[in-house]
Specification:
Residues 16-161 form the Flavin reductase like domain. Helices cover 17% and strands 43% of the residues. It is globular. The relative contact order is 0.22. The protein has 169 residues and is α+β, with helices and mostly antiparallel strands. A seven-stranded antiparallel beta sheet has the order 3-2-6-9-10-5-4. It has a single domain (22-156), classed as Pnp Oxidase, Chain A, CATH 2.30.110.10.
Length: 169
């Protein structure tokens, strides 16, 4: 990597550290048991049909297992679930061990019992991009939770509750 490339990488990372993102946990089972990780890269691509995407870093030990699964559950976290977000962002532990509460959906995927908003879908495409893989998911089931939940966001390596103040013009 050249000095110019390194400078661009540092500036790119600084720009996105300052940009807040919603926090999600991705869970799946590739046949070897449940796997999961915390992600801030989840985006809605389309409502009709329902399609979302997220990226998986090659550095995460859970990424290959999630990428290999045919289906995933994307949990959109509320501010009260910050400890769960931290747990699924920690490497080298059994993320599904107590006190984590989870169960399987009738279709077999692991779902976090305490998270109110989740979407289940089939992996439709995988696109290698840099040191990550962009995963496209056709959503087959959604539980929107309640509007009363305050969203959890992540900015500059810190967790925040998104409050109700709106900015209007």
């Amino acid at each position: 990597m050249t000095e110019r490339d390194e400078d661009l990488a540092q500036r790119f990372a600084a720009a996105f550290r300052a940009h807040p993102a919603g926090v999600a946990i991705i869970t799946a089972d590739d046949g070897a048991g449940p796997a999961g990780l915390t992600a801030t890269s989840v985006i809605s691509l389309s409502a009709r049909p329902a399609v979302l995407a997220f990226s998986l870093s090659a550095q995460s030990s859970a990424s290959p297992r999630i990428e290999a699964a045919g289906t995933v559950v994307v949990h959109l976290l509320g501010a009260g679930e910050v400890e769960l977000a931290k747990r699924f962002a920690t490497g080298g532990i059994d993320r599904f061990a107590p006190p984590c509460r989870w169960h399987r959906l009738p279709t077999g995927e692991p779902v976090l019992s305490t998270v109110g908003t989740w979407l289940r879908g089939r992996i439709a495409d995988r696109l290698p991009a840099g040191g990550s893989t962009l995963v496209v998911v056709d959503v087959e089931e959604a539980d929107p939770g309640t509007a009363a939940e305050v969203p959890l966001v992540y900015r500059d390596r810190t967790w925040y509750a998104l409050d109700e103040r709106a900015v209007t013009t």
